[in-house]
Fold:
Amino acid sequence: MTTTLITGANKGIGFATARQLLALGHTVYIGARDAERGEKAAADLGARFVQLDVTDDTSVAGALATIDAEEGQLDVLVNNAGVLADDALDGPAALRAFDVNAVGIVRVTEAALPLLRRSSNPVVVNVSSSLGSFGVVTNPDRPEHAMPLALYSASKAAATMLTVQYAKAHEGIKFNALEPGTTATDMTAAFGIGRPVEESAAVVVRLATIGVDGPTGTLQDENGLLPW
Structure:
């Protein structure tokens, strides 16, 4: 049995990813800040729930301790929780964006490493963004070129760099960052854009289910490697 934890999974891409991985036979833990919403999502899917706020060390430690006690290991970690951070460009907003989108990856990954090391094929997928790619946002032919989301873009660039550095530091664990595609979620509602979450979740699932000879230290979208 493959045990998977997905952060920020009570809705959106995380929820759809959980549904697809459950269909593949994974035991899926829904991580969510809000216990009521998380428990409902888990019940709707037939998944398990752990209260997990990626900005809270105690919450993260408790979630991984629960998975350790119940499963004894973790095979797949999907760091999906994120914020758009499109409000005022100031210090508090910057701290919030980086705390969720980058530092949150560190908190959860560090807590998960002991459990991942017990897996025969440990995989970590960090949901990043092409908006964090220097190669993409400086290309006038790409739509990202015209999207001035400074804090989101900078924090996602940090998320991708963390992915690369974790891959270098832990050769036995595959770490990959992902641009899941422009998706219709609560995060993009203000822009009125995006495709169904199921399509983007399929991109996450592809990287979450790579074999032992799969890639590591990459940023990818559904078409393959992205420059960044």
